[in-house]
Structures are given as structure tokens and as C-alpha cells.
Design a protein that fits this description.
mainly alpha; 68% helix
Length: 184
């Protein structure tokens, strides 16, 4: 096997169309700060955790979009005139069940992309693996609980606790990322 393994390669600089590559022992490189490519790669446990929970939350958003449509059909509460005309009913904007599902979907559309971006910034700051995964898991659980509480439980205090706990995690990750990138 070649002694110059992939981890022993470091780019030195750009020189007239060619990238100068210097071979260094992996032991020297391992003491260096990880590059952004290392942090935002499938080899990084934190990035994989963020991707895993983000994917599930995105799937949840798609399910809510479909559930909103199903609820509109069941309740015959269509917001668009062409949809209402296709089944011979009037446009109806104020069905409480449809509006509840729609608000849950909108709430997720506001909060889940913010989590993904906050998580990416936080991941790029090279956080502690255990803390990062714990934050991702807690956010995930609170967002699922918030959705369930708003759709089925109708308990305002529980829903508020879930919302603010998830919001706190996003803010915490952003503050930690800002502290890591304070030189800019």
C-alpha cells in the first residue's frame, strides 16, 4: 500500500492552473483543525446526525402537506375556486379543522428549515459530538410533540413548552456557531 494515503495529502496552493500537493504523514495532519469538507461530510458523525433528523422532519412536512389536502377533501373546504368547482361546492376558507392542520404545516415550514440551517452552522463550528447529537435529538422530539399537541391534544401550555424548547435549541446552536466564527 502506498505510504501516502489519502489522509496524508494536503493542498498547498494554486499555481498557474495546477494545485501543488504536499505529502505529509497522517500524524501531522490529524493535529490540524478539520476542514469544512471534513465537517460537512458523511464521515462526520455530527453531520450524519443532523442529516438523519432533518430528513425525518422534512418527511413529516410532506406528510402534513398531504394531510392538509386530505382534510380539505373530507371537509369539502377548498380555498381555490377551481378545486371547489370541481366537486360542486363553494369556496370555504374558515373550516377550523383544515385551518388547524394548515397552521401546523406552516409552523413546521417556519421552524424546520431554520433548524437545518442552524444545525449546519453549528456542525461547521466543529462541536462536541455528544452535545450536538443530543441537541438534534431533543429538537426532533420537541418538534414531533409540538405537531402532535397542535393536531390532536389541543393543550396550549404543552404546545408552547415544545415550541420554546425547540426554539431555544436553535438559538443555542446559532450562538455557539457565532462564537466559533467570531473573527469575521
Amino acid at each position: 500500500m502506498d505510504m501516502r494515503s489519502r489522509e496524508g495529502i494536503q493542498r498547498q496552493g494554486y499555481n498557474g492552473g495546477y494545485v501543488a500537493v504536499v505529502y505529509r504523514p497522517a500524524s501531522l495532519i490529524s493535529n490540524m483543525e478539520p476542514s469544512m469538507n471534513d465537517l460537512l461530510s458523511w464521515n462526520n458523525t455530527v453531520f450524519c446526525g443532523l442529516a438523519f433528523y432533518s430528513i425525518i422532519l422534512i418527511i413529516q412536512m410532506f406528510i402534513l402537506a398531504v394531510y392538509t389536502g386530505i382534510t380539505r377533501i373530507k371537509k369539502q373546504a377548498f380555498a381555490n375556486p377551481e378545486d371547489a368547482a370541481s366537486v360542486g361546492v363553494e369556496v370555504k376558507h374558515n373550516d377550523p379543522d383544515v385551518e388547524r392542520v394548515h397552521r401546523v404545516h406552516l409552523n413546521n415550514l417556519e421552524n424546520i428549515p431554520a433548524f437545518i440551517l442552524s444545525g449546519l452552522f453549528y456542525t461547521a463550528s466543529n462541536p462536541n459530538v455528544m452535545i450536538a447529537l443530543m441537541l438534534f435529538r431533543i429538537f426532533f422530539v420537541f418538534r414531533i410533540l409540538h405537531t402532535v399537541a397542535q393536531l390532536f391534544l389541543h393543550v396550549r401550555m404543552f404546545r408552547s413548552i415544545c415550541f420554546f424548547a425547540a426554539l431555544f435549541i436553535n438559538v443555542f446552536m446559532l450562538i455557539m456557531a457565532l462564537m466559533a466564527f467570531h473573527q469575521f
